[in-house]
Amino acid sequence: MKKAIITGITGQDAAYLAELLLDKGYLVYGTYRRTSSTNFWRIEELGIENHANLKLLEYDLIDLSSAYRIISEVEPDEIYNLAAQSFVGVSFTQPVATANITGVGALNLLEAIRAINPKIKFYQASTSEMFGKVHEIPQSESTPFYPRSPYGSAKVFAHWSTINYRESYDIFASSGILFNHESPLRGKEFVTRKISDSVAKIMLGKQDKIELGNIDAKRDWGYAKEYVDGMYRMLQADKPDTFVLSTNQTQTVRDFVNLAFKVIDVDLVWKGKDVNEVGIDAKSGKTLVSINPKFYRPTEVDLLIGDASKAEEVLGWKAKTSLDDLCELMVKKDIERNKNGSTF
Ligand code: NDP
Ligand code: GDR
Question: Does residue 178 have its Cβ closer than 6 Å to ligand 1?
Fold first, then answer.
């Protein structure tokens, strides 16, 4: 039986990846960090929290000694490093913590693999945020990096550390440069889930409107459940490498808002400019969306669109779900949750 460690089991991607690896017959060790109230709602929602082959391990990415401990104890075949301080906005207010967790955290694992067993395969969760200020459209594995946040810089460090350990020590260490991927399991601080949850609450009369920041930012959004399959495929490939996973389409935050309101049969009309712009219900004339500059970032990533043709060629991976379908899935799930009084 193959054994895998997935870091960050309380997060979106790790929950879906755990489900996938359990289906494939793996013994999965999901790591979580100690907090006063650890929350396993995602694996509970997937119904895998009591799976006989899912073990939970306490682990903090910044603790090198813990990396040695878990790797020695578990003796895994594969490690998927999905844990991170992953919210770009927070990385501006907690830059050093982000550098330690998101950047050095990956190096801790690589160093422990090198020392304990260089045969362990390693996956690093890299990101389109590394491209930042974009000079090439679309962005591929060969596009230069220009990170625009402490999060993006930390991920560049982790990405290059992964390649460095691959080349220096012959470790099967692969890096997936994943563009935004969303799902009903997305955290509510991220814009798509903030919108789907707010639209559900507005429909049910629990909220008046949504306040957003930069609604002109363009993102290449896919479905998280499909992206974790790409991670798995990277570690089954003939050799370690770097791969972009994306849908090869881009849409604005405003487009996503329009799609989400369409799911509840509301058409929005946009009026005003910049911070004074509002989204109004075409029928009732009620303001449902407004801009709050507190959600602006000191520097923004304006346009992301990925070229995932290498992943298709080498791994046979391709994104399938359209943004319309994904948005509908998210809004409908949030309507159901809000009706049931769920706070997740
Ligand atoms: P989430 O934010 O949902 O999950 C992050 C996980 O990391 C959580 O389990 C969190 O634990 C854990 N974590 C945070 N700090 C630490 C720490 N110090 N020690 C141990 N664990 C920690 O992220 P996603 O599932 O969305 O993303 C997975 C990975 O992929 C991340 O590395 C992210 O940066 C990267 N990525 C994500 C993309 C996306 O669009 N989703 C795109 C590209 C890359 P807790 O619950 O306790 O906070
Ligand atoms: P991102 O995701 O920064 O791309 O990082 P997020 O959903 O936070 O922002 C996307 C875009 O929406 C704009 N925006 C807002 N964002 C949030 N969170 N809240 C708002 O109210 C709001 N209004 C507008 C943002 O400015 C941005 O342009 C995600 C994370 O999952 C990272 O970990 C991952 O690496 C990248 O995707 C790829």
Answer: yes
Q: Is 216 helix (H, G, I), strand (E, B) or coil?
A: coil
d(CA 181, CA 326): 10
Q: Separation of 158 CA from ligand 1 center, angstroms?
A: 14
The complex's ipTM? 0.99
Dist. CA 159 → ligand 1 center (Å)? 15
- Domains of the chain (ranges; CATH) run 3-182+222-248+303-320 (3.40.50.720), 191-216+252-302+327-339 (3.90.25.10)
CA 147/CA 244 separation, integer angstroms: 16
pLDDT for 137-193, tens place per residue? Answer: 999 999 999 999 999 999 999 999 999 999 999 999 999 999 999 999 999 999 999
Phi, psi of 317, deg, nearest 5: -105, 135
pTM: 0.98
| DSSP label at residue 129 | G
Q: Is 154 in the pocket of ligand 2 (CB under 6 A)?
A: no
Which amino acid residue places its CA nearest to atom 29 of ligand 1? 82
